[in-house]
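Before relying on records like the one below, remember that each one covers exactly one chain. Contacts with other chains, cofactors or solvent are not represented anywhere in the record.
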Amino acid sequence: MMLKPHPTLPSRGSLPWLAGLLFTGLLLPALAQAQQAEEAAHDYEAAIEEVIEPHVSPHDDRDYRVLTLENGLTALLVSDVTADRAAASMNVGVGSAQDPDDLAGLAHFLEHMLFLGTEPFPEADAYQGYLRRHGGSHNAFTAPQDTNYFFEVEPAALPGALDRFSQFFLTPLFNADQLESERNIVHSEYMARIRDDGRRENDVLNQVLNPANPTTGFSVGSRETLADPPAGEPTLRERVIEFYERYYDANVMHLTLVGPQPLDELEAMVAERFADIADRGLERPVIEEPLIDETALPRHVELQSVRDSRHVRFMFPVPDSLQHYRHKPADFLAHLLGHEGEGSLFAVLRDAGLADGLSAGVGRGDERHALFTVSVSLTPAGAERIDEIEATLFAAIEQIREQGLEAWRYDEQAQLAEQQFRFQQHGSPLQSAMRLAMNLARFPVEDVQYAAYRMDGFEPELIATYLDALRPELLLRVYSGPEVEGEQTSPWFNTPWREVEPEASTAQPLAGLALPAPNPFIAEDLALLDQQDERPAQLLEEPGFELWHMADASFNTPKVEWRFSLQNPTASSDPRHAVLAHLLAGWLDDSLNEEFYAARLAGHDVEAYPHARGITLAFAGWRDRQDRVMRRTLEQLRHGDIGEASFERVRYRLQREWRNAPQAALFRQGHRTLAEALMRPQWPTQSLLDASRELTVDDLRTFRDAFLGELRLQALAIGNLDAELAKREGRLVAEMLTPTLAKEAIPDLTPLRIDEALPILHPHTTREESLVLRYLQGSDRSLDSQARLAVLGQLIDTPFYQRLRTEEQLGYVVSAGYSPLLDAPGLSLLVQSPDVASDEIKHHIDAFLVEFGQQLTELDDADLAPYRQAVHDGLLQRDTSLAGLTNRLWRALSFGDTGFDRRERLAQRVLAVTADDLRETWPSLTERAIATIAYDPGDEPSDVAALTRHLEPLPEADD
């Protein structure tokens, strides 16, 4: 790739427009401004050491520029004239691996502290409040070797956001009066995740990996690890500052900016704000210590899971594959071992009733060392036959060694990767910024976009070095299941675990392994059709069937998204029918998995999912050969054999999901309980679990016939296809399904009105935290009501967070905002706490509501304007992928918005909302009935269906 030189900047030395000012009386102020502009231009140009451009897709029409500032900071600028959001991500090449031995979690704690004030912006909510006023959001995360800070905001507010953001890395205050409160927040974050099985397993894994490798420590932090030191030792604040000054350096910082501004404007923003970050001459820390002691292998470990879920992971130490990203040898092996087609390791294990999921790939990488892992989700039978699974895995590895190292296999993977890169969809500006900032830290700047897709050629010797590491004598085998009784307990997440002495096994591999054949689904016709419609139009309207279509070329990809809603009046009429709809959708996916795995690899995705009206079939992929996938799916749905084994597999997965529902994050369970209370039909997971136990494979066969026998079909096609092709393929589906029902035969999903008789509801959970979710419901489903509550939600977010999380330290999970149920408007205010009881949380929420109401009395329209504009712009936010566009239009169609303009009409209503409107609305929200979901450990779950049976529908609106 040719690196382009820096574009020539306009000369600031010759300013001919000054001559005109000599005669206007404006010379002196204008001359001063010109001199300041010239000085600033020279200043920021002097701060830039190097400028290059990365390798991008031929269909990527965004402009790129990579800067290296004199202080060593690298910045990638992306100018996207179509973007309606701006975003930034700063990746700092330091993380929990650099935590001092006596202060576990310090890097994470520092991440929290940077948000709490800087010298120019000392208020704790200055950054968050500014972003929220301008329709933005923010967050950060700490990983072993990286800390990433990111935000998005309205483009016009980007300079102000960067003013605040850049000061994190220049003048943080590390406010002493915030240390205790933020330590409590970090502890609450730790407690919120203490029952997460992934973290529990990782905690055990850290006990058997090499303790000298710094990625094996406790990374979150707690009150214990971040406690105040003894008298005479440096204070916690001093240690935070010491860590910051030791590791936060421009040379290990990689910044990405994405916005609609021209590159020169973005460049000036960066140079003017980030050039003064300290240059301490640091480099990204390198981890020399091995991740695992190979002389201690093989090892077998068993640990207890919280969820009803059984997994076995086969791990092997390998070099981190980042070192070989240009050839991807580990990806080549992961593709073959993780394949799910006929004869694959997964297919053989699944057909034997031992597994219902499998993945392969490299993880736990520290840029030098990593673990190649084959992870198998087990059935109960599989948990009893792990030795057979292991023997079959090594038979698959041996088959690859003997037959799989063939150039055509690599070339096929490379062809698919190049197709994906050529028609890459970037996602939102924030997603792009985060991904690219992380890539800047790991890859040469020319490959920040290309690294994930780059495959420079088949290197069998390099692949063989990874293959040679996959040997029994280098195996770390980790099993997790709820029945394990441990002899030890992991130190931070309290996981019972034990080590089991590996024994010589006589287990034989299962028969039937075969390497994948050439992929028959690879698209050949990738021509882009130059046709763009403004909105969907109805192509067909027949008895029982309607088809909508919109040609779209805005994403520069020859792909099409199809949605078919198969609607039946009884699909969710009771828990039994709802379970059968889940089973039918799950069976369809399961029964086609082997056949369609190659299609998914080639870019053709198929999904069947149940909903209140029936089942949706979603097809996404290249226009070329998509009809084959659609036809075969419909044939299977109508005539495929529903076998006992497939039925039991799907039922087991669903039952496992429903059994594990009480283990989900408590805040999610609160929102789930709210939906069960205020929407019909919506069945509790326990009701679905109970109903599933009584069903047989014959029940599912009978249901399929009845379901397909009474159908209404609604279809939508969005993407790079014309109306003629859409009509032809849509009619093909309709002819295969023969729908007959009118729209009126399908019941609506209905939101319900809260009344005074509704008691406090308790979710069905086994969590050990407390929760309160207050839900304030709008008076009706009109656009006016939605507009007012959406603006209130924008206003209430930051002060609620600042008061209950930052100041009162009630918990880590604290949120408030607009939370509609379908088209029923509402505000949700939620706090999840590890140590504050729900009654006290309610008191704090109610006190806040009173104070917020008082603040509304002083609000004027000028103060309201930016919040109103932020809601308006958020509603009209540009779709950043074809799938996102399709899903938005599909939701609109499901709500009956056949004009596809309801969001535009709502956005206009939002701009008309006044401060007086909010003052008028607020008392009715807080004085009417409020739904409350609350929980303390030990509370019995409510019978939500019985307690809400009396509720009436929330009134509809004429608009």
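The longest helix spans residues 783-807.
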